[in-house]
């Protein structure tokens, strides 16, 4: 993007969208409230890589093909929605039995979970295909590279907003943990939030073309 004014407009729009509560922020908030900052940060790292997958797919035209196919779109949203529901069940079960997942056991899995949730989120694909092209200068050439550059900036801004939310939610989680049964109630609330995100993903409709 060669126009500085257009680029500043993109930064302002992408920044505003990054701080708006969406599925990604709500998912990371739920993990921070139920399992603490360390787990949520690993989820965030996985989510960051998952976002880059959507950027690469968008630049390669795979996202457009995915959204053009009703079958492929349905498979993606079913996978993402069911995975969120499975995470919700795990969180609820952990609260019910008053057990915490040992840190040594979940270090890798949290990052993988964050990656899967973001990579299978059809709303992320919709976002990049609807938002990024508005700021691409076709006459400047290298359309794919422009898409990747703007997409990476969007992912970085989203991650920065997520880190702030995670730290804030983790502080709340630390205070709640001092109260009797506070952790259990927080985990159950987080499980309900994850379930709501799962159902919301399942009912996402493919845009009409």
Report on this model:
With 209 residues, the protein is mostly helical. The protein is 81% helix and 0% strand. It has nine helices and no strands. It starts with a helix and ends in a 7-residue tail after the last helix.
Specify the biggest β-sheet: none
Briefly note the structural class of the backbone: mainly alpha
Number of strands: 0
Give the SSE string.
HHHHHHHHH
What general form does the structure show? globular
| Overall mean pLDDT | 82
Total helices: the number is: 9
Taking the alpha carbons of the first and last residues, their distance comes to 28 Å
Short synopsis of the structure:
With about 210 residues, the protein is mainly α. Helices cover about 80% and strands about 0% of the residues.
Architecture blueprint of SSEs:
Elements: H1 4-19, H2 23-35, H3 37-60, H4 62-68, H5 70-96, H6 103-119, H7 122-131, H8 143-176, H9 182-202
Helix pairs in contact: 1-8, 2-3, 2-8, 2-9, 3-6, 3-7, 3-8, 5-9
Main attributes?
81% helix, globular, mainly alpha
